[in-house]
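Researcher: I need the complex structure. Ligand is 2'-deoxyguanosine-5'-triphosphate. Inputs:
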Amino acid sequence: MSASPNKNCKRLFTVCIEGNIGSGKTTFLNNFKANDNMLVLQEPVELWRDVGGTNLLEKMYKDPVRYGCLFQSYVQLTMLQLHTQKTNLPFKVMERSVYSARCFIENMKRTKMLEKVEIDILEQWHEWCIQRADIQTDLIVYLRTSPEVVYERMRTRARKEEDCVSLEYLRQVHDVHDDWLYNRSLFSVPAPVMVLDANKSVSEMMAEFEKCRRSIFENRD
Ligand code: DGT
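Model: Output:
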């Protein structure tokens, strides 16, 4: 672990779980559900699969040039809804964030998937969110993996929309996350980062989870 959360913080304490596709975010997040003082918010992937009957996630993978910008716009909206969801509990734990949505925009920029004007608008939208919306984040947990490991996991879980996702794509998504949270050479990092080796098995990750949970509680109280 490479950072500790902000100390002595008595307002809502928000943790975002980040990492590549298939890095184990959902499993990690589910462990927090045993704590009744935490609001645990899973990523709204089901919403993306059914936007008034349209599977936008599938359309984005099948035709990223046509649907990439629209998809990112919807991701930002649904993420903002999670960030701004009110609670009286002292902790909120979220899967991904508007920050990691920016990683995908960055990748679309690097791979020239979208037109410059589309990138410009998505980036302006993102900037507005982080400056004006109430999306305070106190800790980022980065589940760091190798692209080869997540590729195998993704093939095993066989989510139908991800049929066409290549190892090359996972390498690109990994690189953007690493540049952001590990190398710190991309856009700004909004909170301290805890880096965990998420190549480990599910049972080994339980120990990592326990360390992480203790650290969150100890540092807030
Ligand atoms: P996990 O629990 O670590 O295995 O996480 P996943 O793979 O269930 O969840 P995640 O967020 O990495 O991705 C769910 C799907 O949605 C996956 O196919 C990648 C895609 N996705 C998530 N956020 C974005 C985004 O902002 N842009 C694009 N293009 N795709 C995204």
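Model: Summary of the prediction. The chain has a mean pLDDT of 92.
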